[in-house]
Design a protein that fits this description.
By secondary structure, the protein is of the alpha+beta class. It is built from 4 helices and 5 strands; from the N terminus they run E-H-H-E-E-E-H-E-H.
């Protein structure tokens, strides 16, 4: 696939991607002004590489360099017979922004979800993330739901 002056490949995460995945993961956390204990990152990596887990990762490689990641999770729903696909995290390196990488990652999740007979792909973003919302408004519709949470 070609995007804004480059060749883009979307593929599954590979074991050799650990250093660049971690760099992008830390960039994502920094964007949301968050930090996680190293054991959480290690467990996330292990889950993403365990075929028995419902958690998956796609990477975007632009001209051979990994510049984007997305994590997605399948789960049951009381509303449909098919699973839902929750696109939990999406992040692109600064040099890859505005080049179609994020959109390609979302579309690749859509393709995987369809192949898995999922009924829906959905995600959340922070209300202040207006840059991402400009893209999201083009590739999906807003649900109108507001998230509530209690952290333990």
């Amino acid at each position: 696939m070609s995007v804004n002056a480059g060749t883009l490949e979307i593929r599954l995460l590979l074991a050799k991607d650990r250093p660049v995945w971690e760099e992008l993961w830390q960039g994502y956390l920094a964007f949301y002004e968050s930090t996680l204990a190293p054991e959480v990152t290690a467990l996330t990596w292990a889950r993403l590489n365990d075929p028995a887990e419902p958690m998956h990762c796609l990477v975007a490689a632009l001209d051979g360099k990994v510049v984007g990641i997305t994590h997605f999770i399948y789960h049951r729903s009381t509303w449909t017979t098919g699973n839902y696909c929750y696109l939990q995290d999406l992040f692109t390196a600064k040099e890859a922004r505005n080049r179609g990488v994020a959109r390609a990652l979302i579309e690749a999740v859509y393709d995987r979800a369809k192949e898995s007979s999922a009924s829906r792909v959905y995600w959340l973003t922070h209300e202040t993330n207006t840059t991402a919302q400009a893209l999201y408004d083009k590739v999906a519709s807003r649900s109108g739901f507001i998230q509530y949470r209690k952290v333990f």
